[in-house]
Design a protein that fits this description.
mainly beta, 4-stranded mixed β-sheet, elongated, single chain, 675 residues
Length: 675
């Protein structure tokens, strides 16, 4: 039976099955079995196969408007090809699990098929030795074995025991000196007692006098002589329990009340040492012009306060002090005990009010200092222009803590009359200013560092020749962030006095994301053969390009090269942005040409219908595709980056430091009052 008759019989069979079983698939077999329910065409045989249309590469490419999924057998490549809707691509198999070893047969050599369309990379098989040409065996297809379970993490080792605490050293107490002998007490002789004289006789009782007149008055009044006669007086009032002066209702043993123009009680030691109890608007007024004394002296010994004042007034204080001498102190407080480890203070102040302070200092002079403090037995230093506070110490001038573990701040400082700022997570310090938040100077010209920042509790490092700042962290030393969105925003900017500059991590004015942009060249450092450090610089281009390299080998004068899927996924190929391919032969041939270029790969064909198996190396250059977010919006216009406008140097100004004049103040040591 010739081919025309076979084809006619086959066609009629298919039509018959289709007419009879329109609701089922078509089955072609010798057993009479029906087609599988999932198949429109089910061909089965134990000794025959299915032939797909066979044609040359030129014939395949010449098919007009091929349908997506159309399959042919390319006789030039000796390989099946399919049309994916855009280009023709070879069909390659998926590497599977190796089947059991069959009986050893004659080693054959088959033609290597062209590379297929992009897909998962299979494992590379071992190249077999070349033998006598035999039939090509069927390629086995199997499933890739599952990845083994990750082993459990080993247990953490036991922490070593803490070393024993060292013995505390204790010095010996010096011996008590010997008590000197007690002097002899002198005793004089007692004189003799004289004889007792005789008792005289008792005299006669006198006549009772006339009863005087009764002075009228009220209960509690006392009497006084007005120079002429006796009269009742309420100036001194006696309730038999209390005595009042200036009041008829005394509630104390001695209760003295004065009018607004009089002083209640006056006491005087001398014309220059005197005082009042109940003086004008004050409860107590003490005046002393004696250098050994005090206006008011209170001694609570070891049991209570030496001086205690109470008021409920919002205008006045429980205790007020004034000094009218320009060099004097209004209040002088000292803990007189010898230097030691006690907890006493010269002044202790306490307040429970949110609108005030436990200790509040004001200096009304325009160059005055409100509070000055010196520790470590140092002299206090202060600015001649004055300040809110000036503190001096041998190691630390000022120490501040923010004790809240959640949001404590050690110190917050604001300049330019700005309000204070807090931070939710807490900080060691917050500094705020209109143009400069913090200004730090490393004053040593050769080695000074302006500011040192340490993160992750690491040990810091500084340059031996100093710098404006030195920052260290466990994984990141310096972090820069531009909070504004849009173009021309950068994470960092650096320049030098020569005008050279560099932008780091940002987006230029054209909307292209750049990692490093600046004047000069990008370079790396390598070693020479004698271990010296030299520079190598990067080539640069006006477009944003990607490059890739590889090797290949012709099979009967042609081969298809598939590009890496990751590379293909990030390039854009079109008539305007073509894929540029460069081929370098590595053997004798008629020469090459490149065809069928796409973002997935290209064909290499030998000239003049050559059929060599020449090896070659290749390189490709392609434009980087635009970058998109998950919503499909462009976030970097890479295709428009050719000769994009460059960001210019940032404007800057010089900040001139100004040294503030300081003075030292020695505390005045006064004699201690011990009355």
């Amino acid at each position: 039976m010739n081919m025309k008759k076979v084809f006619f019989v086959l066609a009629m069979t298919v039509i018959s099955f289709y007419n009879v079983k329109a609701q089922q698939g078509v089955a072609i077999n010798n057993s009479g079995a029906q087609a599988h329910a999932s198949a429109m065409l089910d061909v089965s045989s134990l000794d025959k196969g299915v032939l797909i249309p066979r044609m040359t590469t030129a014939q395949r490419i010449a098919i007009l408007s091929p349908a997506p999924g159309l399959i042919v057998y390319d006789t030039d490549f000796t390989q099946f090809w399919y049309f994916n809707g855009t280009i023709w691509s070879p069909i390659t198999g998926i590497s599977g699990v190796t089947g059991p070893t069959g009986p050893t047969g004659v080693t054959g050599t088959g033609l290597t098929g062209a590379n297929g369309a992009t897909g998962a990379t299979g494992a590379t098989g071992v190249t077999g030795a070349t033998g006598v040409t035999g039939p090509t065996g069927t390629t086995g297809i199997g499933l890739t074995g599952a990845t083994g379970v990750t082993g459990a993490t080993g247990a953490t080792g036991v922490t070593g025991a803490t070393g024993a605490t060292g013995v505390t050293g204790t010095g010996l107490t010096g011996a008590t000196g010997v008590t000197g002998p007690t002097g002899v007490t002198g005793t004089g002789l007692t004189g003799l007692t004289g004889a007792t004289g005789a008792t005289g006789a008792t005299g006669a009782t006198g006549v009772t006098g006339v009863t005087g007149p009764l002075i009228p008055g009220t209960n509690g009044q006392t009497i006084r002589n007005n120079g002429t006669t006796w009269e009742a007086s309420s100036l001194i009032f006696n309730t038999t329990t209390n005595v009042g002066i200036g009041t008829t209702t005394p509630v104390h043993k001695l209760h003295v009340v004065s009018s607004a123009s009089l002083n209640a009680i006056y006491g005087q030691y001398s014309s220059t040492v005197y005082g009042f109890v109940g003086y004008s608007h004050s409860g107590l007024l003490g005046i002393s012009d004696n250098s050994s004394g005090a206006g008011v002296f209170g001694n609570g010994s070891s049991a209570t306060d030496g001086l205690y004042g109470v008021t409920s007034s919002a205008t006045y204080a429980g205790l007020s002090a004034y000094n009218s001498n320009g060099s004097g102190d209004a209040v002088y407080a000292i803990n007189s005990t010898a230097n030691g480890a006690g907890t006493g203070s010269g002044i202790t102040a306490q307040s429970g009010q949110s609108g005030g302070g436990a200790l509040f200092g004001f200096n009304t002079n325009t160059t005055g200092t409100a509070v000055a403090g010196a520790g470590n037995n140092q002299s206090a230093s202060y600015l001649t222009n004055g300040s809110g506070g000036a503190f001096t110490g041998s190691t630390f001038g000022t120490v501040s803590w923010g004790n809240s573990a959640a949001d404590g701040i050690g110190i917050t400082a604001s300049g330019n009359n700005l309000s204070a700022t807090s931070y939710t997570g807490g900080a060691g310090g917050i500094f705020k200013g209109s143009t400069v938040g913090a200004y730090a100077i490393g004053a040593t010209a050769g080695t000074g560092t302006g500011i040192v920042g340490l993160g992750n509790n690491v040990t810091g490092s500084v340059l031996t020749d100093g710098g404006g700042g030195a920052f260290s962290g466990l994984t990141t030393g310096v972090f820069g962030h531009a909070s504004q969105t849009g173009n021309d925003t950068w994470g960092g900017y650096f320049d030098n006095q020569n005008g050279d500059y560099c932008y780091i991590g940002g987006r230029d004015v054209s909307g292209v994301i750049r990692k490093v942009t600046g004047s000069g060249t990008v370079s790396t450092i390598v070693n020479t053969t004698d271990n010296k450090k030299v520079l190598m610089s990067c080539p640069e281009a006006p477009d944003i390009l990607f490059q890739d390299y590889g090797v290949g080998k012709l099979q009967n004068g042609k081969i298809h090269i598939s590009l890496d899927p990751t590379f293909s996924n990030n390039i854009f190929v079109s008539e305007k942005y073509p894929l540029m391919v460069f081929i370098q032969p590595e053997g004798q041939c008629n020469g090459f040409y490149v065809t069928n270029k796409s973002k997935e790969g290209f064909d290499v064909v030998e000239l003049n219908n050559g059929t060599s198996n020449t090896a070659f190396s290749w390189s490709v250059v392609a434009h980087r595709d635009n970058e998109y977010d998950n919503a499909g919006n462009i976030i970097s216009r890479n295709l428009e980056g050719r000769f994009a406008p460059a960001p210019l140097p940032r404007a800057k100004k010089t900040i001139t430091q100004k040294e503030a004049e300081t003075k030292k103040a020695e505390p005045v040591k006064r004699p201690l009052k011990t009355k």
